[in-house]
Amino acid sequence: MITNNIEINEKVKREIGNCYILGRLADESDSDRIPPLGKERRAVTRVQNDDKDTIVFYLQAISDEPKIIKNTLNKDHKECYVSFDDRNSRYLQSIKYYEQSDKIQFLRDHLENKLILFRPKLSVRHDNSLHPYHYNFDIVLVSDDKVDSNYYVSVPSIKNGVPSARFEKSLFERSPILLPDYPNYMDIPEFILCDGYLYFIPYQDILETGANINLYYGKKPEQIKRLALNDIPDYWDNVKSAYRELGFITDVYASKLRDVFHAKGKPVMLQENISVKKEDKVIEEENKTLSEVDFISRLKYFADVEGLTYQEEEALINFHAALKTENIAVLGGMSGTGKTQLALLYAKALGLKRDENLLIVPISPSYTEPSDILGYLNHQMGLFMESETGLVSFLEEASERENELFMVLFDEMNLGQVEHYFSPFISLLELPKDQRRLKLFSKDAVCHNRKLKEGIPVRDNVLFVGTANFDETTKDFSNRMLDRMNVIFLEKVTFGEALVDKETKIEIFDKETVVDRKIYREEWTQKETILEENEISLLDRLHSLMSEYDSQIGVSFRIAKGIGKYLSNIPLDKDGNPFVTRKTGFDYQIKQRILTKIRGHREQIQDLVGTFDLENNKYQPGLISRLLQEELSGEDEFKTSLNFIKQKAKELSRNGYAL
């Protein structure tokens, strides 16, 4: 029997609220299970003796519940979770609940026979009951999937983009494994999804939990089996209520999967790959001056020291791969996501120092022409008057020290008109490195500085990085600019993810060696550009689709070449496994090199991006989303691009235009 002596501290109660439970509207045929808070023992009803006309409604869990709730508090699985309309106002407002005349019938119609994803909340009871807590909830998602089972099994995913080889290696090395949407207040999951494979964990003691609520460690990894999703052809048809990195399957289908794994599942094996095959040569790690693996470890380490948290795959690895394979990359996103800090951390990891080989150029809204960042020739005096940015002197210094790396950071790059003040560099950076020469004035002009008269060589030892916000205070990047660079949107990580590195074991890596041009441009970068046949086909189809609406937003040869170079240069770990899967890298590139060109008013781009019904929180895919969905072989493919397009559809519905 439960007694009210049980107390759960506030921190644990908050963390339990990060768990996800699948539920359904309470079963009125078993009305004794419905608490007598309302005027009737019904799933949706008015609260009795309430002057505010508050409505109460009940859900029953049909998937596993947190261990504290079911074991410590001994909650009966059929016991209802309860909430009131004024305590789920965020979700109810999104479905226009408060505008309805008959709220009870509206809510009943909305929830009846639907799968409802919710987060549990514990609140202290003050009614002298033997039960110490109320079981409340926050609705996360009401799925279009109908209730077709009495019980569902959770299937969490490893963080999107992590290759299966890295996941399996972490299992054997007892390195932390992150399940972003599956806190360890739940039982050890029976199935885990990662990089096109489904993993079967038949016993609870095969994994163990860490202090951070989303971390797990391998304990008996040799008992785990895996199957490629291609060998389970009906898998995605059976996944219900998919939300972020979590999905659910019925208990009947879970039983079928167990039989398949027992018959065909292959045990996970520790890979022993000690070298990396690159350009048909085996390059031993010890032959490198500084390994790319050590550089990435150094970058993550410096971020941790500074108390900054970034998504490893979509921010750190993506930014590094984009910058080393192109001459310029731009970090975008909402204010406060750490765009400038990431650029400075990257420079620090390279061993660059401010005002020596790192130049920060704050962009002013008044910058409208190249002279604003470079300077101008005073014809009367025959002297070049350099801009206060110091960019000319910096580039001149970089041209003389061509074996060293230099970086220019254009902070708030699109506060000014980029197409105008940056115009000398746009075409320049496309030329072979030995042909890049920045002309500051006409060769026939009189200037006493002979070195400047010939122009300044801009070599590939100079990295150009920009930061940008996208709102009504900034200028758009032209299609000509977007054609030549990656725009990487930094997303705010969850506070749970921010604590992950606290448990990451400290590895020994090189923190001192300065990265020079040879390491960066030759040892870490392949020259070849490789696109696979299916990737070329999709790019062709995207180009045809987009160019029908606007000839300026197709997929150019320059973009295709850049995407191929990026995919050929995804960094590899010390065992030769990519830090990011090729599919995920291709997804990043579609978003960063192609979809950034889609902006404008509803009449211009609505057919491409689709529509979003804000009242019912429903997205109707447009032509691009449908094209990407046709290419799916798994629900996590093109996830980043599809979310980006969906967000543009929201902007169209809300503002009438998308930036």
Characterise this structure.
The longest helix is centred in the last third of the chain and has 17 residues, at 533-549. A hairpin with a 2-residue loop joins β14 (240-243) and β15. The model is unreliable at 273-288 and 501-505 (pLDDT under 50). α7 (292-305) crosses α9 (339-350). The chain has 659 residues and is an alpha+beta fold. The strands form 10 sheets. Strands 1, 2, 3, 4, 5 and 6 form a 6-stranded antiparallel sheet that branches. It has a 5-stranded parallel sheet with strand order 20-23-26-19-27, with helices on both faces. A 4-stranded antiparallel sheet has the order 9-10-13-16, covered by helices on one side. 31% of the residues lie in helices and 21% in strands. The chain is built from 22 helices and 31 strands.
How large a portion of the residues is in β-strands, by DSSP E?
15-25%
Query: Kindly, what is the distance between the CA atoms of the first and last residues, rounded to a whole number of angstroms?
Result: 58 Å
Measured as a percent range, the helix fraction is 25-40%
Low-confidence stretches: 273-288, 501-505
